[in-house]
């Protein structure tokens, strides 16, 4: 593969990187070619030693997405895009990682839904005695003590809020673990240390 073809393929595979980042990466690889040619190596040998331009470009694109998530805090959408870009790099990831990843995302969504449902239902139970006063015929307490409903509602709503706080921490941990896996995958695919 010639230097021009390698750099063109690399440029195409760099993804959503900024123009400045793209120029820096292309400059680095042009420099590799210049140094190799100065040592008397043919372009084809230099291109082989640098690895597949498609994989190198995807690796840089994934790295940029992960850096984007680091700079602006943990941005789940950037990490998610990086995960799917990483998954596209290999058969192993599609078979052994995509299914469990989607399963864990489903579990996280279910846990979030549970936390929100607890908070909302607790608030509904808490406000039910007040609703019987405002709309007497629409809601029936079936002989339940309004004080019991009030405190039960406070308890369930508090449980929902605590579950929501726990889910924030769990979600941050989940995003960090996924980002670490993507970085590991990136190092394995590009054979970087």
Descriptive labels:
single chain; 193 residues; mainly alpha; 2 domains; 8 helices
Describe it.
The chain has 193 residues and is mainly alpha-helical. The protein has 2 domains: 3-90, no CATH class; 98-190. The protein contains 8 helices and no strands. Helix 5 crosses helix 8. The longest helix is centred in the last third of the chain and has 45 residues, at 146-190. The chain is rod-shaped. It starts with a helix and ends with a helix. The relative contact order is 0.11. The model has no long low-confidence stretch (mean pLDDT 81).
Task: Briefly summarize what is shown.
This protein is 81% helix and 0% strand.
**What fraction, in percent, of the residue positions are helical?**
over 70%
Give the distance, in angstroms, between the N- and C-terminal Cα atoms.
26 Å
Please give the count of helices.
8
Proportion of beta-strand residues: under 5%
Number of domains: 2
The profile of the biggest β sheet is: none
Morphology: rod-shaped
The secondary structure category is mainly alpha
Compute the average pLDDT: 81
Helix/strand order: HHHHHHHH
The gyration radius over C-alpha positions equals: 27 Å
Total number of strands: 0
């Amino acid at each position: 593969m010639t230097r021009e073809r390698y750099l063109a393929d690399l440029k195409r595979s760099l993804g959503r990187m900024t123009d400045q980042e793209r120029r820096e990466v292309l400059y680095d690889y042009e420099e590799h070619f210049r140094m190799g040619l100065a040592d008397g190596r043919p372009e084809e040998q230099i291109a082989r030693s640098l690895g597949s331009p498609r994989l190198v470009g995807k690796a840089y694109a994934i790295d940029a997405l992960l850096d984007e998530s680091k700079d602006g805090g943990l941005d789940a959408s950037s990490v998610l895009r990086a995960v799917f870009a990483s998954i596209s790099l290999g058969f192993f990831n599609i078979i052994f990682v995509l299914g469990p990843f989607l399963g864990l995302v489903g579990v996280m969504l279910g846990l979030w839904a549970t936390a929100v449902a607890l908070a909302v239902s607790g608030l509904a139970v808490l406000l039910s005695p007040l609703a019987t006063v405002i709309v007497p015929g629409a809601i029936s307490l079936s002989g339940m003590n309004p004080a019991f409903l009030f405190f039960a509602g406070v308890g369930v709503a508090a449980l929902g809020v605590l579950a929501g706080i726990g889910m924030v921490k769990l979600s941050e941990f989940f995003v960090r673990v996924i980002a670490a896996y993507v970085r590991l995958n990136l190092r394995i695919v590009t054979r970087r240390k």
